[in-house]
Structure formats: C-alpha cells, structure tokens
Amino acid sequence: MTEKEKTAPNELAATSSEQSSTDKSIITNDDKKVKWLSDEKKIDEPLFCKNFCERSELRYIDGQFYSIDGMENHTKIRSEIARLLEANGVTSGIAKKTNSLFDALALFCHSAPIKPRDDEIHVLNGVIKVDGKIGEPPTFIPEKRFCVNRLCVEYDPDIWKHCYYPGHFMDFLCGLLELDDIMTLQEYLGYCMIPSTKGQAALFIIGNGGEGKSRIGVMIKDLFGS
C-alpha cells in the first residue's frame, strides 16, 4: 500500500456510538453465591482475579488494562472491584482490599504486547480491512477482535450505497484551510487510523488565534479517544 493510497475520503464513514464502552460495567454479578469469598469474608485472590478476567475478557498490557471494547480506565476498574466487595457483604477495609485486588488483577491478567495489523482499522462494531482502492468500499467484518487501537466510532457499511457528503464538516474546513491543506489534513487523519508509522509524518497547524484550529483537536480526540 503506497502513501497516496492512505488518503482518507472526505470523512470516515462512521457515526459516534450511542453509548461508549466506558458507560458500561465491564463485569456482571449474577452469581447467587460467589466462590471467591468464604463465609468468613476471606477473599481468594486468584479465584477473584480469574472470575473478574473471564467476565470482562480483561488483559493487562504495558501497564494498561484492555477489554474487548478497548482501553479501560483504572479508576473504573477499582470502582467495579469495590462495588463487588460491597455487594457481597465486605464492609471493612474496602479501599485497602480494592487496591490489593487491583494489583493482583494486573499480575493475573498480564499479557504480552499485541502486534497490531496495519491493514485493519478496529471500530466499535467490527473491523475495517484496508484492502480497497480510493472510492471503493473496503471489506467490513462485523465482529470485534481484541486489540489495543480501537476507534471510538461505529462504521456504517451502507454509507457506500448512497451519495454522502459531510457538508457541515467540510464547510468548517473550507472556512479554516486552503483546499490543498484540507487534502493534507484528510490524508493525515487517514494515516492516523492505521497502526503504522511508516510514513514518518507529523502535522503542524499554524495560524492566528480564534480561527478554529483547536476544534480539529477536539474532533481528533473524539475520534481516537485520546
């Protein structure tokens, strides 16, 4: 794939998910009696970690927790642990026990780094294969695969069945950038969607204050989740 083929179309054919994965609990607590807690309220840490990881498909990679939905917030995981303890009658020393279980979870869920494929774009509802030509629909696989680079959007494969023009976004860009600069921005954003640095490229947006440059940063943050 050449660098020119990395040029993104006018806008990624994707829509924001109605509910982010960060709004969902990464675990459920549907057991009538948990096996990791004794009648004396003593916690079996390995069993707790096994139960927690199995329910959330959790992995700990390079100092960060990931689930099938992407990167997980550490504060959220601690909150889930504390909620489980409280729900099962543990009422003393919750903060200390939560931190201890969190550290144990990091050890139990530790996984080797995952090498991402530079021909795949992971979105909230599946995988987009970078195998087509400009103007042609790519292959879309409507199932999630574990990854460390999931975009915070859903892809709509039916977008190619009708004419689509991101008028609001393009009007914003036309008021901010020259045509050649718009194409450069689109190409750079398309390049950012694949986990590769082969292009050895960086982007600088230079201008006066109050022109809307920071809004591009907001858009990128919403898209890439960072």
Please give a handful of descriptors for the protein shown.
alpha+beta; 3-stranded antiparallel β-sheet; 6 helices; 8 strands; 12% strand; disordered N terminus
Short description:
With 226 residues, this protein is of the alpha+beta class. Helices cover 33% and strands 12% of the residues. A hairpin with a 2-residue loop joins strand 5 and strand 6.
Strand order of the largest sheet: 2-3-4
By DSSP (H or I, 4+ residues per run), the number of helices equals: 6
- Give average pLDDT, whole number: 81
Q: Tell me the radius of gyration.
A: 22 Å
**What separation lies between the terminal Cα atoms?**
27 Å
Total domain units: 3
General description of the model:
With 226 residues, the protein is an alpha+beta fold. It has 3 domains: 45-109, no CATH class; 115-158, no CATH class; 165-225, no CATH class. It is built from 6 helices and 8 strands, in the order E-H-E-E-E-H-H-E-E-E-E-H-H-H. It has helices spanning 45-56, 74-87, 94-108, 167-174, 179-192, 213-224; strands at 14-16, 59-61, 64-67, 70-71, 120-123, 126-129, 139-141, 153-155. It has a 3-stranded antiparallel beta sheet, covered by helices on one side. It has a 3-stranded antiparallel beta sheet with strand order 5-6-7, with no helix packed on it. A two-stranded antiparallel sheet has the order 1-8. A hairpin with a 2-residue loop joins strand 5 and strand 6. Residues 1-22 have low confidence and may be disordered.
